[in-house]
TrEMBL record:
Protein's recorded name: Circularly permuted type 2 ATP-grasp protein
Organism (species): Phenylobacterium glaciei
Listed SUPFAM superfamilies: Glutathione synthetase ATP-binding domain-like
Region (Disordered): 448-470
Residue intervals of the Circularly permuted ATP-grasp type domain: 64-439
């Protein structure tokens, strides 16, 4: 919000002027209004491993993050470029594997990745759109430019919080919002439904879409139900679906109804007990055979996780160059591959300065933040690195940028990152908004909701020729 000289940045002027007119109690009341909205909407999240197993309202900050149009234009181009290349990469590694034969990405790194699915080899995916919904995590670097921290191509979550934050934000700062020329995100559910239907439109004139959820005990169940309601699509669990003659049907009170597109919010391992994990009770027996026969589309496609593997991430700039002949618009963070002996030695010698992550983990799990870890935690992690170096990567400790937050009645900076959402089907669309995730604990760098983080609304300002929020 402020420059190093303490001056208010131009795109924050309107918000700053409004805050200056509000007393502490006024701000506190607006925060309570926002929390009441989330409570009435049932917007919850489960923090696994917490002392209480009950769901809680996702922590949400009152003050929006504001991004000017020119910055967003670069982000939009960079994310479009990145997802286009990653979809081409997935089509290649599950097809001719030319990029592996050319040695751009090590063959064993891909084929031995836990998320690589041999069952997907040579299967047809409409429009070569393997990752239909992507949520890439961006951070602002010290020079002000954005970089990609990681890609999320499996079952990325958080878009419902982006939409809910916007509804709440319009209630808490209505005048400032209207005056700020903010781009709309209301069409996201329609764009998502259109993208999903477009995956089967070539062979079914009006495809039936369903949202497949693991059930009410999943931490993001609210999002599954919320998106299904906004799209007008049935929300189903595995037990609601049945496969006959390689066709997928939904059980209804009037009989079986054929399903064409499944927006699955269930991990690969659990979608079909006949193909993947036999002990899964979340999926549908025979679903993958129906998919293999081309009678149903699963979005995102099984096996997309290999493209957001944290070791493959290190090669994304080379992947973009290989397929598109372009330099990456959004750079990566420097990454050390522990599978390389020289880089492993460097990581072991600098554990107190680095962040170490398991290549297949997500949600803030399986990682070590060296500067904040105890000597014993670093020692234990060093043993794990030596035992299985290929399972880990390391990155410098990133000093995330900060945004103003209302903390105990006072405006205080907290570290943030940015998760925009990109849709990919017949074309690639970047939603003109994002989920800003906030590390609410002072000094913390962990923004994941599953690790006690929170969120705030993100205002993308419209340019001269762009549509603003009504």
């Amino acid at each position: 919000m402020l420059t190093l000289a303490g001056e208010v940045r131009s795109h924050y002027t309107g918000l700053d002027e409004r805050i200056a007119t509000l007393a502490s109690e006024d701000m506190a009341e607006r925060q309570r209004t926002l929390e009441r909205f989330f409570l009435l909407q049932g917007i919850t999240f489960t923090v696994y491993g917490a002392e209480s197993s009950t769901e809680r309202i996702i922590p949400t900050d009152l003050l929006p993050r504001i991004i000017p149009a020119e910055e967003w234009a670069t982000i939009e181009k960079g994310l479009t470029q990145r997802l286009k290349a990653l979809n081409m990469f997935l089509a290649d590694i599950y097809g001719e594997q030319q990029i592996l034969m050319d040695g751009v990405v090590p063959r064993d790194l891909v084929l031995m990745a836990p998320s690589y699915r041999r069952e997907m080899q040579n299967l047809y995916v409409p429009h070569q759109a393997y990752a239909n919904v992507c949520g890439s995590d961006l951070i602002r670097q010290p020079d002000g430019a954005f970089a990609v921290l990681e890609d999320n191509l499996r079952v990325p979550s958080g878009v419902s919080y982006m939409l809910a934050n916007r509804e709440a934000s319009k209630r808490t700062f209505p005048g400032t919002f209207r005056a700020s020329n903010v781009r709309p995100i209301d069409r996201y559910p329609d764009l998502l439904l259109s993208t999903l239907k477009g995956m089967a439109a070539d062979w079914r004139p009006n495809p039936q879409v369903v949202v497949l959820t693991p059930g009410v005990y999943n931490s993001a169940y609210y999002e599954h139900a919320y998106l299904a309601r906004l799209m007008g699509a049935p929300l189903v669990e595995g037990r609601d679906l049945v496969v006959h003659d390689n066709m997928v049907y939904m059980r209804t009170t009037t009989g079986l109804r054929r399903i064409d597109v499944i927006y699955r919010r269930v991990d690969d391992d659990f979608i079909d007990p006949l193909t993947f994990r036999r002990d899964s009770g979340l999926g549908v027996a025979g679903l993958f055979n129906a998919y293999r026969a081309g009678n149903v589309v699963i979005c995102n496609a099984p096996g997309t996780g290999v493209a957001d593997d944290k070791a493959v991430y290190a090669y994304v700039p080379e992947i973009i160059k290989y397929y598109l002949g372009e330099d990456a618009i959004l750079p990566n963070i420097e990454t050390f591959l522990c599978r390389e002996p020289a880089q492993l030695s460097h990581v072991l010698a600098n554990l107190d300065k680095l962040v170490v992550k398991a290549v297949g983990a997500s949600g803030g799990y399986g990682m070590l933040i060296g500067p904040h870890a105890s000597a014993k935690e670093r020692s234990d992690f060093a043993d794990a690195l030596r035992a299985d170096p290929a399972n880990y990567i390391a990155q410098p400790t990133i000093q995330l940028s900060t945004a103003p937050c209302l903390i105990d009645g006072e405006i205080d900076p907290r570290h943030v990152d940015l998760r925009p959402f990109i849709l990919s089907g017949e074309k690639i669309t970047v939603t003109p908004g994002a989920l800003t995730r906030v590390a609410l604990k002072k000094g913390s760098l962990v923004v994941n909701s599953s690790q006690g983080g929170g969120s705030k609304d993100t205002w993308i300002l419209a340019g001269d020729t762009e549509e603003a929020q009504p």
